[in-house]
Amino acid sequence: MHSESVASRSADPRDSRESRNGSPQLDTVSLAIIEQLQQDGRRPYAAIGKAVGLSEAAVRQRVQKLLDQGVMQIVAVTDPLTVGFRRQAMVGINVEGDLEPVADALTAMSEVEYVVMTAGSFDLLVEVVCEDDDHLLDVINKRIRVLPGVRSTESFVYLKLKKQTYMWGTR
User: Fold this and answer.
1) I need a labelling partner for 85 at 20 to 30 A (CA). Which of 11, 46, 67, 162 fits?
2) Which of 83, 59, 63 is nearest to 73 (CA)?
């Protein structure tokens, strides 16, 4: 975002309105703040303020509100290999009956990074990050496959992570 295009936008605090589905409806300034933080999660509020046309204090308030509303998180993203997790896999899961209890049980597992309900060949897609192949086998065989409602699984073991980014912006 160019500062001149963002600065001309309204700084109206309407960023807290909710859309029809109950999620926060964000104004263009809040979206610009999110984009700034996606580029660098440690960017100072003063620099963000300059880019979006707000004061440092106003940016701080907006960021806190975005965090409180669950719109975003500011976290350190690691390369799993460098922190001891040498095996990652995507696991496709087919479920009999209600997906919610299975999805909830998967969400509670520390090795599970993502749980996505899908339409297609699988009911759920789950990303798993493990220390090694034995750990992955244990998670799939003794924790996922034994969940009530799990009919079948198919594992896609990652051979090499070519891209991992969270820079999709606010399109």
Assistant:
1) 67
2) 63
